[in-house]
Amino acid sequence: MTDNDSEKNLRRVLWISALDGWSISLFAGLCTLISLLWFEWAGVIVGALVTTAGAIELRGRRKLLRGDAHGLPLLVRAQVMILAVIWLYAFENLLAFDEATIMASVTPEMRNALSQAGVSVEDFRPMLKPVYYSLYLTVIAVTLLFQGGLALYYHSRRTKITAALAARHTVPHPHASA
Fold first, then answer.
1. Residue 125 — pLDDT band, cuts 50, 70, 90?
2. Is 51 inside any structural domain?
3. What is the pTM of this model?
């Protein structure tokens, strides 16, 4: 492993963590505000927790920029936190499926949209549960791929990042003999 290889890995981790941390923070923060405006308290809690995870990732990145290798575990923790929060939310929704409640919340506008698509509400009813489950199972799978994959990526770069940070902070002593 060369110093150049370690340095490239550090730069890549710094770039990815900036992009991911800011994207997560801004998007989840916006979702939190929208949930707050709609008085959707579960959304507020989920959004706030995911926003916090994005901030943790950015904090870890700042530590790495300062040469502190303790920032890398923060990057991993942020991804695991996002994964856990989204999975808990998704599993809770899967367990709470209630066809009657969902059908009662179908608005006239939704009925119109279904009608324009050539589907009656009664035709839609048998599709409700498979669509509902597919949605949340897809969220679970995508979160595993992205957040789980990113946590593994950050973790797998530990040795190279530590080496790059050590190389950046190894300055020859002015009185050392050549």
1. confident
2. yes
3. 0.86
